[in-house]
Amino acid sequence: MNKKDTCEIFCYDEEKVNRIQGNIKKIDIVSIAKILKAIADENRAKITYALCQDEELCVCDIANIIGITVANASHHLRTLHKQGVVKYRKEGKLAFYSLDDEHIRQIMMIALEHKKEVKVNV
């Protein structure tokens, strides 16, 4: 970090800080962080994106699409399901996954759109 991207003196707007701290305490920010963290894994992001492209996919389809084993795909899908990103249904011996709701698709599409607009400083 260099001096240009930090404050050079310590001061803060107490009213703003108190208001926003109060707002943060009123929402379930931990659950939001868990959802975003679940999608943040590269394979889980690929799975989420793949499910944005089709209504539902079976575990075998997902494994082949992103180039991982069925067992690995199942592991990632369980994580996504636990965090409410995907839902599934069984049809005989097959498990079909889909996005939990339209909000997940929107999160992914907004993130992709943002990436196109912003030059990331790496």
Report on this model:
The chain is elongated. It is 61% helix and 11% strand. The model has no long low-confidence stretch (mean pLDDT 94). Helix 3 packs across helix 6 and helix 4 crosses helix 5. The chain starts with 13 loop residues before the first helix and ends in a 5-residue tail after the last helix. It has 122 residues and is mostly helical.
From the alpha-carbon coordinates, what is the Rg to the nearest angstrom? 19 Å
> What is the end-to-end distance?
12 Å
Silhouette: elongated
Query: Main beta sheet, described?
Result: 3 strands, antiparallel
Order of helices and strands: HHHEHHEEH
Structural class: mainly alpha
Summarize the amount of helix as a percent range: 55-70%
Note the beta-strand portion.
5-15%
**Helix tally?**
6
* Strand arrangement in the largest pleated sheet: 1-3-2
Low-confidence stretches: none
The count of strands amounts to 3
Determine the mean pLDDT.
Answer: 94
SSE layout:
Blueprint: H1 14-26, H2 29-40, H3 42-53, E1 57-58, H4 59-66, H5 70-82, E2 86-91, E3 94-99, H6 102-117
Antiparallel strand pairs: 1-3, 2-3
Helix pairs in contact: 3-6, 4-5
